[in-house]
Design a protein that fits this description.
Number of strands: 6
Radius of gyration: 37 Å
Largest sheet: 6 strands, antiparallel
Shape: rod-shaped
Strand content: 15-25%
Length: 241
């Protein structure tokens, strides 16, 4: 019941492996799921594992174990039984995958004939084994878990898409802000340029006339008033900015 209410993939994965590990008193439990790119499988969560080791596990889609799971359907794989049915070369290859997952048994998680993942189990002692009743329980448990995991995977995918949309929205807003700032800067530069041009022109006029004799008082006053007016205009522009 608790699993059915959990939609976050990380929390759900931790809950599955920890529950199985503690209730069944297992040495290790690992939940293996296919990556978003669908070209390899990784450990989503593990009980009894070193965290660093679990993060390193990558099983390619073409690996013998994955292909065996796809071919075998929802049946639980018992390591010793599987190896006895294969040639030595095939047995050696699939043993490598079992070792990678530290597994004695692997419970596939199928949903509508699609392999979503698997639960890898190992016992605390060589004497610990599962009987047919245990296998029946694990198969039923896997059926229920597969449905819940599918919902969690969809929810996780939606969250990723939402995060991507938020990033895209943020980028668009940032671009819009930058564009607005660029337009503002261009407009302000144009506005400030106009009074500065007038001030420069009036000042140059006075310089050119200084050697040509004294200017009429009214002319000087006109030029100076224009300079003061344009200076105030530039100051007002920067104040508004």
């Amino acid at each position: 019941e608790e699993l059915e209410t959990e939609l976050h993939l990380n929390e759900l994965s931790n809950l599955i492996v920890n529950t199985l590990g503690e209730v069944l008193r297992l040495k290790s439990v690992a939940l293996v799921l296919r990556t978003a790119s669908a070209d390899q499988w990784c450990v989503a969560s593990a009980y009894g594992w070193n965290l660093t080791e679990s993060k390193k596990v990558r099983i390619p889609q073409a690996a013998p174990l994955i292909q065996y799971l796809l071919h075998n359907g929802p049946h639980i794989l018992v390591r010793d039984r599987v190896i006895r049915t294969l040639s030595w070369r095939e047995a050696n290859s699939i043993s490598h995958d079992f070792n990678l997952l530290q597994a004695s048994w692997i419970v596939p998680l199928f949903r509508q004939e699609r392999l979503l993942g698997a639960i890898a189990l190992s016992s605390s002692s060589p004497e610990s084994i599962f009987d047919e009743a245990d296998f029946q329980f694990l198969r039923e448990f896997a059926t229920s878990i597969a449905k819940i995991l599918q919902n969690a995977l969809k929810f996780d995918e939606l969250e990723e898409r939402l995060a991507e949309l938020k990033d895209a929205q943020s980028k668009l807003l940032q671009d819009a802000k930058l564009q607005s700032m660029e337009q503002l800067a261009t407009g302000m530069a144009h506005e400030i340029h106009n009074p500065l041009t007038i001030i420069s022109g009036k000042a140059q006029l006075l310089l050119m006339r200084k050697d040509a004799g004294p200017l009429k008082e009214d002319k000087v006053e006109e030029v100076l008033k224009a300079i003061v007016e344009q200076t105030k205009r530039a100051a007002e522009i920067t104040r508004r900015l």
